[in-house]
């Protein structure tokens, strides 16, 4: 399990992002995200809630965009919850994926 955040600092501006969306990554499916290595893949996902039930995405197909968890002094903090399912037979190494983060104002 993992925890991350997207922090947006808009001090000095009257515009604040209302939500953050995430792309599906290389899999093209937000419900089946994976990180790749030269010899295989490692499944994972990113969620909008601590219970890890609401898959983060763009709001389509049942996914959930992130909404600010904290707003203060021109800053919005959006929290992400990650999970890698156990018992995956993968080799040691560096696995990676790319997710596009979009801020909506």
What do these coordinates show?
The protein has 105 residues and is mainly β. It is built from no helices and 8 strands. The protein has strands at 2-9, 19-22, 34-37, 40-43, 45-47, 70-72, 75-83, 101-104. Strands 1, 5, 6 and 7 form a 4-stranded antiparallel sheet that branches. Strands 2-8 form a two-stranded antiparallel ribbon. A two-stranded antiparallel ribbon has the order 3-4. A hairpin with a 2-residue loop joins strand 3 (34-37) and strand 4 (40-43). The radius of gyration is 15 Å and the shape is elongated. The chain starts with a strand and ends with a strand.
Averaged pLDDT, please?
88
**What is the H/E order?**
EEEEEEEE
Q: Structural class from helices and strands?
A: mainly beta
Major sheet attributes: 4 strands, antiparallel
Say how many strands there are: 8
- Low-pLDDT parts are none
- The helicity comes to under 10%
CA(first)-CA(last) distance:
30 Å
Q: Beta-strand percentage?
A: 35-45%
What is the count of DSSP helices, taking H or I runs of 4+ residues? 0
Q: How does the overall form come out from the CA principal axes?
A: elongated
Please state the CA-atom Rg, rounded to the nearest Å: 15 Å
Please outline the helices and strands.
Blueprint: E1 2-9, E2 19-22, E3 34-37, E4 40-43, E5 45-47, E6 70-72, E7 75-83, E8 101-104
Antiparallel strand pairs: 1-7, 2-8, 3-4, 5-7, 6-7
């Amino acid at each position: 399990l993992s925890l991350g955040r997207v922090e947006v600092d808009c001090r000095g501006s009257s515009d604040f992002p209302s939500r953050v969306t995430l792309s599906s990554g290389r899999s093209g499916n937000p419900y089946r995200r994976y990180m790749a290595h030269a010899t295989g893949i490692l499944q994972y996902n990113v969620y909008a809630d601590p219970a890890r039930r609401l898959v983060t995405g763009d709001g389509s197909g049942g996914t959930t965009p992130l909404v600010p968890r904290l707003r203060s002094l021109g800053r919005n903090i959006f929290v992400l919850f990650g999970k890698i399912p156990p018992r995956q037979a993968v080799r040691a190494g560096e696995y990676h994926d790319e997710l596009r983060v979009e801020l909506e104002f």
